[in-house]
Design goal:
20% of the residues are buried. With 177 residues, this protein is α+β, with helices and mostly antiparallel strands. The strands form three sheets. A seven-stranded mixed sheet has the order 1-2-3-4-11-6-9. It is globular, with a radius of gyration of 16 Å. It has two helices and twelve strands. The model has no long low-confidence stretch (mean pLDDT 92). It has a single domain (3-170), classed as Sandwich (Jelly Rolls), CATH 2.60.120.10. A hairpin with a 2-residue loop joins strand 1 and strand 2 (10-13).
Length: 177
């Protein structure tokens, strides 16, 4: 597979048709280990203006994904690993926790976010590989970050937030808003 490097965490596949196999996923997993934030994505769409965006994403355990919601449709399909998808109400209350895993696990392997809800992933396995599909074109303003969650450039605050969130999920602090 040929790729163009957009930055250390984002690659775009090159070509009119594309296949992704085990070797390609291993390439992404190895490449993610060299990134500071231990994550990478392979975009299989041709550019940010495309109407459909498909990505193969790799995150290491402990990756902080700031809770956010998208103003467009989104779905994800777990290929390898496991995580809890945590869905929040607007005021930080946990609404739902969905255990996700690959097809062979006992967990759900596919999730489509139907309502615009803040969400994040708590990665349980050493590595998580998933296929994400979103409606394009890409526009930064279509992603709304939770105002109550620390920014990704505040690592100490993000670690503390994750620690508290892990505890809340473990204790089953779900409810309605």
């Amino acid at each position: 597979m040929k790729v163009n490097k957009f930055n250390e965490e984002v690659l775009f596949a090159i070509g009119k048709s594309l296949t992704v196999g085990r070797g390609d996923i291993e390439f992404l997993k190895n490449r993610s280990k060299r990134n500071e934030r231990k994550r990478i994505r392979l975009c299989t769409h041709q550019g940010i203006e495309d109407s459909l965006h498909e990505m193969f994403i790799v995150h290491a355990k402990g990756t902080y994904i700031r809770p956010h919601k998208h103003l467009k449709a989104e779905s994800l399909h777990i290929i390898e690993g496991s995580a809890d998808l945590v869905i929040f109400g607007d005021k930080k209350k946990i609404i739902e926790v969905v255990p996700l895993g690959d097809y062979l696990s006992q967990d759900k392997f596919y999730y489509r976010i139907l309502k615009l809800r803040y969400h994040t992933l708590l990665i349980k396995s050493e590595i998580l590989v998933f296929h994400e599909v979103k409606t394009g074109p890409f526009n930064r303003s279509d992603t709304v970050f939770a105002p109550w969650a620390p920014q990704e450039n505040s690592p100490a605050e993000a670690r503390e937030f994750m620690r508290q969130l892990l505890r809340a999920v473990k204790e089953g602090e779900e409810g309605n808003e």
